[in-house]
Design goal:
heterodimer; A: mainly alpha; Rna Polymerase Sigma Factor, Chain: A; Arc Repressor Mutant, subunit A; 0% strand; B: OB fold (Dihydrolipoamide Acetyltransferase, E2P); five-stranded mixed β-barrel; rod-shaped
Chain lengths: 194, 270
């Protein structure tokens, strides 16, 4: 118990140094990041829980293999998200062939438009909200992932830049275009947002 | 699989399959390799810019003013396209390898491209100033068989008497004519027209290279309307060591001529 408490108090960098020497210590890092990475992979891949866990195991093995390549000038979370993102993209064809599920049963996707829209006032009914969810699900991955990282995962621009390995300006452009795309599609379906 | 099981399963896999982290030196080496490739591509880009600038300076810009029938369309034929294409290709490589470095993704595309262009232009110009452009062009001209086809150079333009361009080394001079040997080792009699113009300070002696705009009269006789003397623009193929023995051949060609040409001739800039 005390050991677990001690590990919880350690920073990511300290756990990384311990994990390099002992795989058991890597378990502490996994414990810290498995839930956020699980939901992140689920949001961008739209796979079932079992499929996401399979991917997550591969990703953790990859993180462990490359742990000596981690640059401590970057947040460990950004680096772990980067490896997760790259793994999903690299296996996109395999992932695309698997059955998809509806995005985010907990409706956390609404955070994407919450900053610009008064949800109670401006969205007429549940049908509109369902339509918006469809729009986001069908968006190209490059727009969907930046919107997820920004509004659901609450990452700042610096972190998103490190995760996606794109310049800050490009990240800002992708977010703006993603929101515009949602607006355009919503208008086609007969309602306005943003 | 629950979350706890995932951790146990993964740690168990790491241990049972003896999976170890890749050594740090591999990541350092890969990053170093990308930076090495960036520098290498940049160096070749600088040399390409130097060669391109050198060739631009070799263009006889003045000649196009006097060329019959508007020589400007010919100008585009002599621009250093090959070096420009090489520069573009190397630029793509620099961009690609910079992006692959550890911090490369942080910089905007435009910043990388403009920085690259600024660097190679500045350093390439400096390199050309210390004759690197000429060295690169000469090396390519002598060592690469396809280079002369892609980069014809001014010597190509001046070997087209049928279009009014002729250049050669002076064999003998007279008041109203001279004889030359062109780059293809053909002997020519050049007759000065009545309204002939000159460009450049002319101290025409034997062995000087002269460029002539005019009209081909046939049978290796050329009527000159413009004489250009431009020693600051040496032509490839006219270097001394490539022309050994021509003097004897030239003089034999003109042995039978009865006209007497004076040895040297001076003309003032009109």
């Amino acid at each position: 118990m005390k050991i677990k408490e001690d590990l919880e108090k350690k920073t990511d960098q300290q756990l990384v140094e311990l994990a390099k020497k002992d795989p058991e210590m890597f378990g502490a890092l996994m414990d810290r990041y498995q839930k956020p990475l699980f939901f992140y992979i689920k949001r961008i891949s739209q796979l079932s829980n079992d499929d996401v866990e399979d991917l997550l195991q591969d990703i953790f093995v990859k993180i462990y293999l490359n742990i000596n390549g981690y640059n401590c000038q970057m947040k460990f979370s950004s680096w772990a998200y980067r490896i997760s993102h790259n793994h999903v993209v690299d296996n996109f064809r395999k992932i695309a062939a698997r059955p998809k599920i509806a995005l985010n049963e907990d409706d956390s996707w609404l955070k994407i438009i919450r900053s610009d829209v008064d949800l109670e006032k401006d969205l007429a009914n549940k049908q509109d909200m369902g339509a918006i969810r469809d729009i986001i699900e069908k968006m190209p991955l490059k727009y969907r992932e930046v919107l997820i990282l920004r509004f659901i995962e609450d990452k700042d621009y610096e972190e998103i830049m490190d995760i996606l390995q794109k310049p800050k300006g490009t990240v800002a452009t992708l977010i703006a275009r993603g929101k515009k795309m949602i607006q355009k599609e919503a208008k086609k379906k007969g309602f306005e947002i943003f | 699989m629950t979350m706890k099981n995932l951790i146990e399963k993964t740690v168990s896999k790491l241990k049972s399959e003896h999976i170890k982290p890749l050594p740090r030196w591999r990541f350092v080496a890969v990053n170093f390799l990308y930076w090495f490739l960036v520098v290498l591509a940049a160096v070749f880009s600088i040399l390409a810019v130097a060669a391109g600038i050198h060739l631009l300076f070799q263009i006889d810009w003045e000649a196009f003013r006097y060329a019959p029938g508007g020589g400007w369309r010919n100008l585009f034929f002599y621009l250093p396209y090959l070096w420009l294409m090489i520069l573009v290709g190397l630029g793509f490589l620099v961009f690609h390898f910079v992006r692959k470095t550890q911090q490369g993704y942080r910089h905007r595309n435009l910043v990388i491209i403009l920085s690259f262009l600024a660097l190679v232009t500045a350093v390439g110009s400096a390199a050309n100033f210390v004759k690197m452009g000429k060295i690169v062009d000469d090396f390519a001209y002598h060592q690469l068989p396809f280079y002369r086809d892609f980069m014809p150079g001014m010597e190509h333009m001046w070997q087209r008497p049928e279009e009014g361009f002729l250049a050669g080394r002076i064999v003998s001079m007279g008041q109203s004519k001279m004889s030359i040997i062109d780059l293809k080792n053909s002997a020519w009699e050049v007759v000065f027209s009545q309204d002939m113009q000159t460009r450049g300070v002319l101290d025409l002696n034997k062995n000087e290279i002269v460029r002539i705009i005019g009209k081909d009269q046939g049978e290796n006789v050329f009527e000159a309307t413009v004489l250009i003397f431009a020693p600051e623009h040496p032509m490839r193929g006219f270097e001394d060591d490539e022309r050994g023995g021509y003097r004897e051949k030239d003089e034999r060609n003109f042995k039978n001529r009865k006209e007497d040409f004076s040895e040297s001739f001076e003309m003032e800039l009109r």
